[in-house]
């Protein structure tokens, strides 16, 4: 913890570099990814403060849309689209994902009931051909596609897509190499950016 505290102290000593951030934010991208500490959107993309609006959830899960019981995730998505007017949404899964791995392996999560119940949002995912693969690449990529489909069910997203004011992107990040692949509809595969 001490190195983080030391960096935070140093960071606050450069207010002139951050002064313009007080005027507001206007990110063009909502970046939805896992809460995994190895996935750092600004590091992956080179984004500066104010350039990405981030939504991080266990397993980069986008819960089903429901107006009766709004979620924090739905509020974040709606705010990004309706208020900030983001032009692009990236759903970024990653290799070695514990959440997706637990789902495809059928791990017993009774000791962590909140995690178990949250991952139930991903329980209907297509199974992968090799659940023993530590990267769970196939499962994560399928999971990213499922989250993109789920995003389309959000009214604010559907409206912007119909008006050609929003683009959705599926990314797969390899934590062990740093490579990023994007889903290409033409080939139905994830290819290098």
Structure explained in plain terms:
The chain has about 190 residues and is α/β, with parallel strands linked by helices. The chain has helices at about 1-10, 15-20, 40-45, 70-85, 100-105, 115-120, 135-150, 155-160, and strands spanning about 30-35, 50-55, 90-95, 165-175, 180-185, 190. The chain has a six-stranded mixed beta sheet with strand order 2-1-3-4-5-6. Helix 3 links the parallel strand 1 and strand 2 (about 50-55). The longest helix is centred in the C-terminal third of the chain and has 15 residues, at about 135-150. The radius of gyration is 18 Å and the shape is globular. The mean pLDDT is about 90.
Concise synopsis of the structure shown:
The protein is of the alpha/beta class. It is 36% helix and 18% strand. It is built from 8 helices and 6 strands, in the order ααβαβαβααααβββ.
Write the layout of secondary structure elements.
Layout: H1 2-11, H2 15-18, E1 29-34, H3 41-45, E2 52-57, H4 72-83, E3 88-94, H5 98-105, H6 113-119, H7 137-151, H8 155-162, E4 167-173, E5 180-184, E6 189-192
- How would you sum up the global shape? globular
Given as residue ranges, the uncertain stretches (5+ residues, pLDDT < 50) are none
Q: Give the rounded overall mean pLDDT.
A: 91
- Helix percent band: 25-40%
Q: How far from one another are the termini?
A: 35 Å
- Coarse structural class: alpha/beta
**In DSSP terms, counting alpha (H) and pi (I) runs of 4 or more, how many helices?**
8
Can you list the strand order of the major beta sheet? Answer: 2-1-3-4-5-6
